Amino acid sequence: MKTPDWLPTYDSGYRGRCPKESVEQATFFNRLRKEYPDSWGAIATHIKNEGKRHRYQIDKDRAQGLTKGASDIIIPGCPSFVCELKRRDRTVSKWQDGQQEYLKAAMDCGSFTCVAFGVDQAWLALHDFIDCQSKPTITFPSAS
Fold it and tell me: SS3 letters for the chain?
């Protein structure tokens, strides 16, 4: 799988048998919620936009905010963490419609964006993101 030059890529170089993407994702979220239950694990989300749907359901989901190509792991923050998780062996992974465009838009809005090949690489990306969080933050005025 080819990645665009502008997109940070976390790839160990592994080639061979590896778990399906859904297994890697479940492992990531389970570990995140175990190790960071009151912070990143409490707010991380996956927007389910995989699978087949009828045209009516697609239109309804989009009207309610579903975005085509939304990344697998999204953690709100300043910046937000937006990670497309693929299988550990990049040669058995492929882009779905809208994924690269979503990542580019997130990057252009200031998010920490990346593609990670496997849960271990996603974990490295997460810690790079956490390191970004230790920098001074923006203070927003409270609502009156």
Answer: CCCCCCCCEECCCCCCCCCCHHHHHHHHHHHHHHHCCCCHHHHCECCCCCCCCCHHHHHHHHHCCCCCCCCCEEECCCCCEEEEEECCCHHHCCCCCCHHHHHHHHHHCCCEEEEEECHHHHHHHHHHHHHHHCCCCCCCCCCC
0.70 cut: is pTM over it? Answer: yes
Q: Is 52 a residue whose pLDDT tops 70?
A: no
Tell me how many degrees the CA angle 41-102-52 measures, rounded to the nearest 5. 85
Compute the average pLDDT of residues 108-125: 97
Domains of the chain: residue spans and CATH: 9-133 (3.40.1350.10)
Mean pLDDT of all residues belonging to the chain: 86
Say which residue, 51 or 14, is predicted with more confidence.
Answer: 14
Closest by Cα among 78, 92, 81 to 11: 92
Residue 144, C-beta contacts closer than 8 angstroms, at least 6 positions apart? none
